[in-house]
Design a protein that fits this description.
187 residues; mainly alpha; 78% helix
């Protein structure tokens, strides 16, 4: 299996990253709401604890949507996906001193970590949109930490919107590829 074939299989299996990003976007949206109505501590617990359930919920949604096919044994990228998934939880201890030093930097710092986490997705899926998402999140986190008026939930609202928009873009790209493949087979 070539790299391009493996990337195509990843895009097809995960609908261009739609389900994972949708789940992540909803989690960030929930955390932003919790920040507004319950406070920073509850918002942090929501996004951190909820983050451990992103992959299982993504898999449930995939199965509910009828996406039951597994990645082929020949697809070496399936292990890269698992490794990329562990990068974020292993880097999250950096958020502890950030939050202790300046609590309103928590979400901007997490935006930077999540953005960096998306960089390998460019190769994993073979989709440049992940580079744009990564750059947006990293730049957004840096700008918020530097220039924010101290609104704790701002980064969560921005990130949830970005993730949901890019989820839709990834699904549209994947659906377009599927339609093209069907047309090629039909002709």
């Amino acid at each position: 299996m070539t790299i391009a074939e493996a990337q195509l299989e990843m895009r097809r299996r995960f609908a261009g990253g739609f389900y994972g990003q949708f789940v992540s976007g909803v989690l960030w949206l929930m955390s932003a709401g919790v920040a507004e109505w319950r406070g920073p501590r509850a918002a942090i617990m929501t996004v951190v604890i909820g983050g451990f359930f992103i992959f299982p919920v993504t898999e449930l949604l995939l199965r509910a949507a009828g996406e039951k096919r597994e990645l082929s044994e020949a697809n070496a990228l399936r292990f890269l996906g698992m490794q990329v998934a562990f990068v974020l939880p292993l880097s999250m201890p950096l958020l502890v001193p950030v939050g202790l030093y300046r609590l309103d930097w928590f979400f901007p710092a997490l935006m930077i970590l999540v953005g960096a986490h998306y960089v390998p997705f460019v190769f994993l899926y073979g989709m440049r949109m992940f580079a744009i998402l990564a750059a947006f999140l990293v730049a957004g986190g840096l700008l918020l930490a530097t220039y924010s008026p101290g609104i704790f939930s701002a980064g969560a609202w921005i990130t949830s919107g970005a993730l949901l928009v890019f989820a839709a873009v990834g699904k549209a790209i994947s659906a377009s590829e599927a339609r093209e493949a069907i047309q090629r087979v039909a002709t």
